[in-house]
Design goal:
The protein has about 325 residues and is mostly beta strands. The chain has 2 helices and 24 strands. The protein is globular.
Length: about 325
């Protein structure tokens, strides 16, 4: 029977402890997976905030006298793209997850708003009225090559990428009422998805690519609905007399964050994907709205996820122990 030297055993345990402790601050610092950004005017003007998925550890990312809005995470969780009127009109900007390193991506006298990062992180879709009406544009992640992909006399806005990046869901009034449409990422093969009474807006594609959540206005107030991408199985998830809007799926597709006015002001709520367990996360007298969930992929720091990093450490430790044991066998 193999006998393990007590001293070697203690050294192995100490090595495990030191390696895990040394990596722990890194995991805590860069792990953004599952966090939620949103807009709040709790500091007078509209700023972008970040919080955990349970509403804890809330903090402001932008701090200026202008208005910032519509945050959207990069798929690797390292950056956030957003709109701001700090230049005198609405433009698209990007910053890191601490609110630093702000860069301006658009520079146009028109209004550029509602940016959304593509799943591969290479493109950003946004809405611009630089052609006289709202159109869907796509640009490179650095702001280059800005292209109009809708080119329609009607208004097109509220973009959401499919998980594979091949299609975009959006809102358009090209057939009269506001409806949800789907097109290829280059603007081809446009088809209408919703045909409900009232206006349908703010599509959000599920992580599995099978469903789209959206806001429907059959009455004065909105409700959150979900529909299959072929137009079947329409379901009202909120069914509340107050206004509910801005649905955003969690990365695992199990929950949906949204804005609700059921408490008399805008609050960030989260519910299960079937509409159950609707919970207020923000609980603040200010206006909180436009949630955005990080991220499409469980990445941190642009490299490895916390889970993957921890597994790597454990593998290294296991190899180290095996080496020690084999050395003692000799």
């Amino acid at each position: 029977m193999l006998k393990i030297n007590p001293r070697s055993h203690k050294l192995s345990l100490m090595a495990i402890f030191l390696i895990l402790v040394s990596f722990n601050p890194i995991l805590e610092e860069v792990n953004t997976y599952g966090k939620i950004t949103f807009i709040s005017d709790r500091d007078t003007n509209r700023e972008i905030y970040i919080m955990d998925a349970d509403g804890k550890n809330m903090m402001s990312l932008t701090r200026n006298s202008f208005n910032d809005g519509n945050p959207s995470w990069a798929p690797d969780g390292t950056r956030i793209v957003f709109e701001s009127d700090r230049a005198g009109n609405w433009e698209i900007y990007v910053m890191d997850v601490h609110g630093n390193g702000i860069e301006r991506l658009t520079n146009n006298p028109a209004e550029d708003r509602s940016p959304v990062w593509s799943p591969d992180g290479k493109k950003i879709v946004f809405t611009s009225d630089r052609d006289g009406n709202d159109e869907i544009y796509i640009m490179n992640a650095d702001g280059g090559n800005q292209v109009n992909v809708t080119n329609n006399a009607a208004d097109d806005w509220d973009s959401s990428w499919s998980p594979d990046g091949k299609k975009i869901a959006f809102t358009s009034n090209r057939d009269g009422a506001d409806e949800i449409y789907i097109m290829d990422a280059d603007g081809n093969n446009v088809r209408r998805l919703t045909r409900k009474r009232g206006n349908d807006r703010e599509p959000s594609w599920s992580p599995d690519g099978k469903r789209i959540a959206f806001t429907s206005y059959e009455s004065e107030n909105g409700d959150i609905y979900v529909i299959n991408t072929d137009g079947s199985d329409l379901i009202n998830l909120t069914n509340n007399p107050a206004h509910d809007s801005d649905p955003q799926w969690s990365p695992d597709g199990k929950k949906i964050a949204f804005t609700s006015y059921r408490d008399g002001n805008g609050e960030i709520y989260v519910m299960n994907a079937d509409g159950s367990s609707q919970v207020n996360l923000t609980n603040n007298p200010a206006e909180d709205r436009s949630p955005s969930w990080c991220c499409q992929f469980p990445m941190t720091g642009g490299t490895l996820s916390a889970e993957h990093l921890l597994i790597s450490v454990l593998i290294i430790v296991a190899v180290f122990i095996i080496i020690v044991l084999k050395s003692r066998r000799k």
